[in-house]
Amino acid sequence: MVVSCCGPKGGPLAPPESGALSASAGPSRPSPSPCPVGAADLIQIAGGTVSIGSQDPEGFSSDGEGPARLVTLSPYRIGRTAVSNAQFARFIEATGYQTEAERTGESFVFYLQLDPAARAAVRRTVAGLPWWLIVPGACWQAPFGPGSDWHTLADHPVVHVSWHDAQAYCDWAGVYLPSEAQWEHAARAAPTGFRYPWGDTFEPGGIRQCNTWQGQFPNAPATGWHPGTTRVDEFAPNAYGLFNTSGNVWEWCADWFNADYHRATASIDPLDVRASGRRSQRGGSFLCHASYCNRYRNAARGANSPSSSTSHTGFRVAAGASG
Q1: Residue 158 lies inside a defined structural domain of this protein
Q2: Is residue 156 part of a domain?
Q3: CATH classification at residue 64
Q4: Which residues of 169-195 are buried (b: 16+ CB within 10 A; e: fewer)?
Q5: What is the pLDDT of residues 176-190, one digit of tens each?
Q6: Does residue 91 lie in a domain region?
Q7: CA 155, CA 307: separation in Å to the nearest integer?
């Protein structure tokens, strides 16, 4: 487990209707932390001229995954892991911040994360996506609704955090959300890189490398695997030392999401600032599978409204280069 000075560490959904904040709004920003993210949490990335994007035949053209192109990135640092529940708890303790899910009183939970009785009690689902349940009381502190507790998942990534919530944490900790280009380059761990953080074969030698769906989505897996998050430092890191950039949880990025991202953004430190109503996400989650949503590839892109929160979305942080 990575420890900082602050403590241990497919498609878009609309936010629940009741009390949801607008995409342009967002909670007030907490004051900067007297104990920002520690240097041990962040990996120095040299930057330079690197390749991002892809024409992967397994990709989703509507997501704007390509064309592949060369961009130049300034040196930066990025989190070894996604922010954990324990880290996020320190932020809440220091600031008294309330997440958007807490303020609205509900959030999205994947149906197999609830026991049958709790599942049967939920009255609202997402039209066309019945596996998403709108669970009253679900939030980062109670990931599966009333009766659940983040303490049993302290070293798992925090979930049920909106883009606004992630940004508030960054403001407090003196860091920022990575750009899509920074995130992708760090996940590739090379100037050009592979389809996945570890290479071009999803399960080399039949060995699992990340936490993605097992079985036939969205049916209950017959393998003994249970849908949900794993530790932030589960599985082997990539060549740069980053954990879980494929699968586990979607990770918010700084950019607005636009399908023409690779054609419309700059070739030097690209960042899409064109407001679109959706913020970019990267990495896929434990719900991704080749039969339904293989967005756990390095070049794959996702998006959601900045006020949305789900049981499969978290974030990692970035910072300027040290020294």
Answers
A1: yes
A2: yes
A3: 3.90.1580.10
A4: bbbbbebbbbbbbbbbbbbbbeeebbb
A5: 999 999 999 999 997
A6: yes
A7: 24
